[in-house]
Amino acid sequence: MEEVKLLGTWASPFSYRVLWALKHKAIKYEYVEEDIFNKSELLLRCNPIHKKIPVLIHGGKPIAESIVILEYIEEIWPENPLLPQDPYERTMARFWIKFGEDKGPIFFNFFHTVGEEQVKATEEAKELLKIIEEYGLGEKEFFGGDKIGLTDIVYGWIACWLDAFAEAAGVKLLEADSFPQLQAWADRFKEVPLIKDNLPNHDKMLTYFKSRREKIIASATS
Amino acid sequence: MGEENKVMLHGNWSSPFVKIVHLALTLKGVPFEYVEEDLENKSPQLLKFNPVHKKVPVLVHNGKPIVESLIITEYIDETWKNSPQFLPEDPYKRAKVRFWSNFVQQQLFGSIFTIIKTEGEAQEKAIKEVSEKLQLLEEELKEFFPDGSCSIDSENVGLLDLVFCSLFGPQKVEEEVLGLKILDPGKTPLLCSRVTAINQLSLVKELTPPRDKLVAFLKFIRENALKSASG
Q1: A25 interfacial to chain B (CB closer than 8 Å)
Q2: Cis preceding linkage at A193, omega within 30
Q3: CB A10 within 8 A of CB A35
């Protein structure tokens, strides 16, 4: 099998999406930790357009953008599929994956803003969570149905990162009484062995996000 | 036609996103019913089929709705497997097509609309961004088409071609409205020749709205945007 390399960072949910998919399919890979403040030659060469992680390098060929990487992994290694076989169900999965991607920057505004702006951004983030819960998840156990699929993996940040981001930013977002189905999904998702055994250290993440938040506040108020 | 295999496309004549899907269906020879939506007065069906975004295009196949132009086009490609195949067979090439189609739709579309809706410094900034992005695209196209060939027929149109066509179809229209060229054959010759080739296809010509209508529409958007920016 050709060599598989993943360029990622320890705290990034985008990095973890790819890692989870590779582990789910039992694909051997080499992981390379990137320093986003000092990007490697390899990263810049492999993703000259966006200069971001994650990047998958398969047999020397680079693929960038986590969603594109995930579809690639699914096509090259179709065993243990993460997308539904039915074309319509597969398309619906892609819709929700794209929705999460497109809204991502808007969603995380609460972390990058202060004062009035942060209040507004937090409300907008909650509206997005409502849409995801009502239309995306509905009554299902997982986005993928009775077991996790690519959509669950892509929304993994809600279950495993959102709390730390919100706490660091001093806001409350995913509360069980406001989003009962989504909270229940998050609890189930975190118990899936693949996910449970492959998560960044929560305390380390919180410390890191808090220091990022301090820098944001400092530049907002200076 | 009966409910089974019935295909409907809810769209609007002015939308480049609808154009991608309309072209895709037409090129594949899929019989479908087209429903023109009034975007100021959206039909109850549209709102029912696309409650999340409430936008066109919406494809309805066997009563089931699909939204988002690139996602719809992949669905069409997977469901009707006759040529043209919009996505290549090879997974690595597919990844590249997906990456660049997203790039054009997410980054270029937005910047080009900014050029249309602004003036002065804001517009200059957008023009510079678009120029840089087009250059990146040109470099990538050199890899896709190493011998520089540009022959396109209705059997070999790809997803990227559809996206280009939706954005650069009314090219000369934008020049008339803005007084500037967005595509410059001197700077991006391969991209320009690809766009010209696609726009020559008779199927594409048939789906391009009349020039006057497009010019009036873009002028209207521009005037409104400038008025609300200053008012």
Answers
A1: no
A2: no
A3: no
Q: What is the dihedral of CA A130, A136, A137, A142, to 10 degrees?
A: -140
Task: Please tell me if residue A85 touches chain B, with a CB cutoff of 8 Å.
Answer: no
Q: Is the Cβ pair A95, B136 closer than 8 Å?
A: no
Cα separation, B19 vs B203, whole angstroms: 12
Chain B residues with beta carbon closer than 8 angstroms to that of A95 = 66-68, 71
> Could you give the CA distance from residue A171 to residue A180 in angstroms, rounded to a whole number?
18
**Binary contact (B74, A64; C-beta < 8 A):** no
Q: Residue for token digits 């390399």?
A: A5
Region class of A131: left (phi > 0), else alpha (psi between -120 and 50), else beta? alpha
Does residue B170 register a pLDDT over 50? Answer: yes
Give the model confidence (pLDDT) of A28-62 as tens digits: 999 999 998 999 999 999 999 999 999 999 999 99
pLDDT digits over A188-204, tens only?
999 999 999 999 999 99
Residue type present at position B43? S
Nearest residue to A54 via CA among A71, A69, A39: A69
Find out whether A101 and B68 touch, Cβ atoms under 8 Å: no
The partner residue sitting opposite A75, judged by closest CB among B66, B94, B136, is B94
Contact: A71, B94; criterion CB under 8 Å: yes
Name the amino acid, one letter, at B171: Q
HSE-up of A56 (CA within 13 Å, CB side)? 29
Residue with tokens 């500037």: B180
Tell me if chain A has a CB within 8 Å of the CB of B73: no
Exposure letters B188-207 (e unless 16+ CB within 10 A, then b): bebbbbbbebbbebeebeeb
Whether residue A105 has a cis bond before it, omega within 30° of 0: no
User: What is the full DSSP assignment across A83-114?
Assistant: S-SSHHHHHHHHHHHHHHHHHHHHHTHHHH--
CA distance B138 to chain A (A): 13
Residue A197: CB atoms within 10 A of its CB come to 8
Q: Cβ distance A172 to A126 under 8 Å?
A: no
Residues paired with residue A21 on neighbouring β-strands, in sequence order: none
